[in-house]
Write a structure and sequence with these properties.
By secondary structure, the chain is of the alpha+beta class. The chain has one domain (4-69, 111-137, 147-223): Alpha-Beta Plaits (2-Layer Sandwich). It has 7 helices and 10 strands. It has helices at 18-26, 33-38, 105-109, 126-129, 151-163, 176-180, 197-202, and strands spanning 4-9, 47-55, 58-66, 85-87, 93-95, 116-117, 144-145, 186-190, 207-208, 220-223. It has a 4-stranded mixed sheet with strand order 8-1-10-9. It starts with a strand and ends in an 8-residue tail after the last strand.
Length: 231
C-alpha cells in the first residue's frame, strides 16, 4: 500500500510562487477577484508565507510554501457531520464534494488553515476556459476545498502501472507544484518505499513538521535552512 508524502526544502525555495500558479491551473482553483479578496475570500490550495528576518543591512527574506499537511490523524475529518472529508487508504485526506453541505467545521478545526470555502459559483472568462483541466472535478458553490496531492495524477500513474503489471517507480508521480518548481525544492513520493528519496529526506537531521506537538502526524516535511547534506 502506498503512503504519499512530501518534503519541501526551505533552503532551495526562492519564493517565485510557481508552485502556487501551477496548483491553481492544474486543479481549476478559482480566482477570487479583487472584491472577494477584500472580504477575505481569496483562495489558494498552495498557500505561501514570507517573512523578513534580520536588520539592515543583514536582511533576508524567508519563504514558506504550505499545502494541505495530509495528516495521519486529521482533525478536519472528525468534525464533518456528513463525512464529506475522510482519509483514504493511501493517507490522502480527500473530500467528497457532492456530499459537502458547507458547514465549514473542517475549516475551523484545521490548525494549518489550508481549507477554503467556495463562496461563489465557478465561472471562467472565455479566454480561460481552454486552460481548465478536464481531469479535475469543477467544485460547485458552497463547498470547502483544499490540496489533495494532485490525486488525479496519482490515479493516472497507478492505472498505467496496473496496465503494465508493475508497481509505481519512485519519482513517477509528480504533483503540479513539484513539477513546476525551478529549484526542485519539492520532493514527492511513497513514504512506505524504503528506497524512495522522499523517505530519505524526511529522516534528515534538517527535517521537521509544522505543529508537530499537536499529534496530527502530518506527511508534509520541511528541511531547515542550512547545509545541503541530503543529496
Amino acid at each position: 500500500m502506498y503512503r504519499w508524502g512530501m518534503v519541501i526544502d526551505l533552503d532551495r525555495c526562492t519564493g517565485c510562487q510557481a508552485c502556487v500558479v501551477a496548483c491553481r491551473q492544474e486543479n481549476n482553483v478559482l480566482f477570487a477577484g479583487e472584491d472577494e479578496a477584500k472580504l477575505g475570500r481569496a483562495k489558494f490550495w498552495m498557500n505561501f508565507i514570507s517573512e523578513v528576518k534580520g536588520s539592515y543591512p543583514d536582511v533576508r527574506m524567508h519563504f514558506f510554501p504550505i499545502p494541505c499537511m495530509q495528516c495521519d490523524h486529521p482533525p478536519c475529518t472528525k468534525v464533518c457531520p456528513v463525512e464529506a472529508t475522510y482519509k483514504n487508504p493511501e493517507g490522502i485526506v480527500a473530500h467528497i464534494y457532492p456530499r459537502c453541505i458547507g458547514v465549514r467545521m473542517c475549516i475551523s478545526n484545521c490548525p494549518y488553515t489550508v481549507r477554503y470555502f467556495n463562496w461563489h459559483a465557478p465561472s471562467w472568462p472565455d479566454e480561460y476556459k481552454r486552460g481548465r483541466n478536464p481531469d479535475v472535478y469543477k467544485r460547485r458553490k458552497g463547498v470547502t476545498e483544499k490540496c489533495n496531492f494532485c490525486i488525479q495524477r496519482i490515479r493516472k500513474a497507478k492505472w498505467n502501472a496496473k496496465r503494465e503489471k508493475r508497481k509505481l517507480h519512485d519519482g513517477e508521480v509528480i504533483p503540479a507544484c513539484a513539477q513546476t518548481c525551478p529549484s526542485e525544492a519539492i520532493t514527492f513520493g511513497d513514504l512506505n518505499d524504503p528506497k524512495s528519496r522522499v523517505l530519505k529526506l524526511s529522516k534528515s537531521r534538517r527535517a521537521f513538521r509544522l505543529l508537530d506537538d499537536l499529534g496530527t502526524e502530518p506527511k508534509v516535511y520541511y528541511l531547515k535552512e542550512g547545509e545541503w547534506d541530503d543529496g
